[in-house]
Each structure stands twice: as structure tokens, then as C-alpha cells.
Amino acid sequence: MAQHTKTVYIGKVPVGGGNPITVQSMTNTKTSETKATVKQILELERGGCDIVRVAVPDEYAARSLPEIKKEVSVPVVADIHFDYRLALLVVEMGADSLRINPGNIGSLDRLEQVVKAAKRKGIPIRIGVNAGSLERDILERYKTPSADAMVESALRNVITLERLGFYDIKISLKSSDVKTTIRAYRTIADKTEYPLHLGVTEAGTFVSGTVKSAVGIGSLLAEGVGDTIRVSLTDHPLREVEVGKEILRCLGLCKKGVEIVSCPTCGRCEVDIIELAKRVKDAAREIHKPIKIAIMGCAVNGPGEAREADIGIAGGKGKGIIFKNGKIIKRVEEQKLLDALLEEIDKY
Prior knowledge:
Distance between the termini: 36 Å
Oligomer: single chain
CATH topology of the largest domain: TIM Barrel
Strand order of the largest sheet: 8-7-6-5-4-3-10-9
Number of helices: 13
Helix content: 40-55%
Structural class: alpha/beta
């Protein structure tokens, strides 16, 4: 059963409350280098990213926000650590949301100033709890950054914000350990109705990070827990978006974009299906209309799988058959397969 959460708005994008689950990423450019940051955000937008976060380590980064926001369409979240003055500044500079760890933002008086500023501008705050940055007293009591320790930290910070009259809150509880992450989110889902931002932090390079994120985020989403996600990869941010969208798609939680069904190859394959699948994926990267494409290498499973797709091919010896909505529409030589398939995709 899906967790019931309230809705908060990041810019014009609703998060929680049964709204579609959003995919986030974070730029890896210097935020103060506005041209590079805008270029990367626009690339993420084209890739289907719903919300983008930028690091704000100094005043130069904070004062770059207005120029960045003029050039992009997606909401921009400012990531703040330690310096409450930067949080106050990015609120004035037009950030659509704040990501802070209230435990490291300073005294209660300083936190109250940040909360009042966010409330005045009507922007939400994400309480971002990471296993590696728990409050000292909590870590001493639990001896380890356990799921229960993370939950206690998050709820402590929620109570603090609520006492300051602030309720426009999202929560994340991230660990690099998948099981700890899953336990933490499962536990807090029963204790709050604030929307949850899912992620496995410091998940690693593309392969290991994708697997960790798919297991951690996917397990929770399959249980109805989670409202927005970020896949953390040591890679280009666009790949985070690709993986995030694929996790949602395979759970039936996203109908946008291209779903590619392709065979794993074997000794029966008579066409270069690996290269063909890669080139189709690259060519279809920016298609957001829902479409299922099948790329199959032989006659064993090929025709059946291809017929289930909107558009598909089944390979033969140096040639292939193109299907559309279950019907054969043409037979082409192997060297013409890609162009013929892309032509049909464009028509679709």
C-alpha cells in the first residue's frame, strides 16, 4: 500500500500527495560558473530531469542563482551546509527550495532566521540526513550510523522546524549501505506524512551505483514508499537521470520516454545487436513520448517480443524484419536496419 504524504511544491513541480514521482539530479559544475552550469542544467532538462540541485559553497555561487534561473525551466534547489548566511542569501536570490541539514546549520537562532526567510518566500526545506553526518550525541548513543539513528535525527529536525511554525518539509535519509537506507525509509514512512526524497548516497561508479540505487530505491518504490528520487553516481549527472527514469519505468511509475526491450545475445544472433541497441538508445535519448522499442537478434524470441512493442526489429542472417504494432512493415538488409528503424520511430 502506498504511503500517504502531503504535497509540497518545488517551484511549480508537486512532490508527494500521490503526484507522479519526480527524478532529480545535481550539477557537478562550479555553480559560480554560470554558463557551464546553465549548459548542464539544460542538458538535464532535455534528458527528462524534473528538479535540479546545485551546490552553494560560497557567496559567488549564491549570487549566480538569478542568472541561472533566467535560462532554465526546471526548479533549482540550493544545497547548503554549515553557513546559515548562504541559506538566507539563496532564498533572496530565488532558490526554489533549500536542502539543509538543520543539525549543522548553526544555533537555533540561526536556523530560525533561515526558516522565517523560507516561509516568507514560500519555499520548502529538505531535511537531508546522511549516515556520515549525524549529530554527535545520536551517534554516541547508537554507536553506529544505523537506520534508527538516522530516523531519530530526521524526526528531531522535523520537530524543530514544526516548533518554528514551518511545515513545508521534505525528508531524506541516505546511507551508502543499501540495507540501512531501506530500513531507515521504511521506518520513517510509518512516522510522518512529509514527502520522502529517496536515494542511496555515494553509491559509486556507473555499474555499482546503478545496481545499489536500483535495489535500494526500487525496493522502496515497489512498497509504495517515496515521492522523489535521485540516483547518486560517480558519473555525468545525465546518467543519474537515465537510471532514475529507468527505475520508475520498470515499476510502471513512469510512462514517458523510450522503453527498449533487447535480447541479451547468444550464438544464434546473426546481426550486431549490441551495436544496434546502443545506437538506438543514443538516438532516442531525448524522446519523451511513451514508446516501446524491441531490438531482437534472432527468430527464437524476436518476432514475438517485437510484436509486443510499438516498433521493433527481429534480426536474421545479415538482414532484419521491422514490425509496427504487431505487423511486419518491411524487410531490410542489416546495414540499413538502424536507419529504417529510426525512420519509423520518427514517424511514430
